[in-house]
């Protein structure tokens, strides 16, 4: 018998069987504005319409020419699959183990400081939903929500820190994170100075936001965001503040500046200090160099996230996918994760094949939360997890451990054809 064009050998007898053979379609149970979100790339345009121009520009943009941002996506286009056929994939599983915990899928949420600027109680929504879906969520140190509240909302939340090279501030934050109950601490290592984000200047974005006539106009011309996020937040919780980086600073202020501290002094001695005083899992985020991965391993770090900060720091920094195999080889027993450019289930599987044990997704998660809250976020998780499961079946694998480099080849390569043979063929 055929179900939607697929020969399955007999009618499915249970609801689970129907789900196994289902194909993508519009879910009429969703709110109308989410029904045509069929893939993660469908989220960006609705988010552009919903968010004020400065805030969307901050979230979507990269540094300088956006070359690093574009490169994160284009790297995935250079790898194609070599699937296996006639494999029983009926018992395939998307579950993935990470730091002793088995999650429902091999992806989680990257740290994003703009979460509570785009959605009402955005950080709490992310944390709570991640826990409900059994996925990890990394809370950003640049958040507008107290780190204690985010951990209380979801026990799968990790904390990501921006730290200066100052021992006393490191000790205070580590103590606070420990008291809040976090078990994984992520130190971002690619922000010694502010990036050159020209797009922020062009769009009028500043942290904190500066109250100007242009900002007022941008907010008022996006009433769904203005009333559904900003007014609702101020009415229920008061003015949002940056809560986890030095002195509290309000989201909107004429002159106040966030205290970054001396981040350009942060070095390996501070990592080793953190390793001594932090008893949980310690992860470095922003690693693109295999020598950095080696030193991290030798310093007792538990894992690294291969990342170029979503193309938001050093323009023309290499796409994480390109350096992933070398870093994975250097890491040995250390856990390797990756973020940057993930939009499809195929992207996740390519990253796993090149040595990542887990990946994290950034902007699409933020867009989903902005336009749909928890409902939009759950829908996005469902889409991505279903893609991973479907792609595993089409590749002929049942577990994520089976996704190896042998299942990939260069997009412009020819399996079994040597370079010399190709040159000779061109001359004939």
The gist of it:
The chain is an alpha/beta fold. The protein contains 17 helices and 16 strands. It has helices at residues 15-21, 44-50, 53-60, 67-74, 115-118, 122-132, 147-153, 167-180, 198-203, 213-220, 223-237, 268-277, 290-298, 320-331, 345-353, 363-395, 419-427; strands spanning 2-3, 6-7, 79-81, 96-98, 101-103, 107-109, 137-139, 157-161, 184-188, 241-242, 249-250, 281-287, 303-306, 335-339, 358-361, 408-410.
What does this structure look like?
By secondary structure, this protein is α/β, with parallel strands linked by helices. The chain has one domain: Aldolase class I (TIM Barrel, Alpha-Beta Barrel). The chain has 17 helices and 16 strands. Strands 6-15-14-13-12-9-8-7 form an 8-stranded parallel beta sheet. Strand 10 and strand 11 form a beta hairpin. It is globular. The protein starts with a strand and ends with a helix.
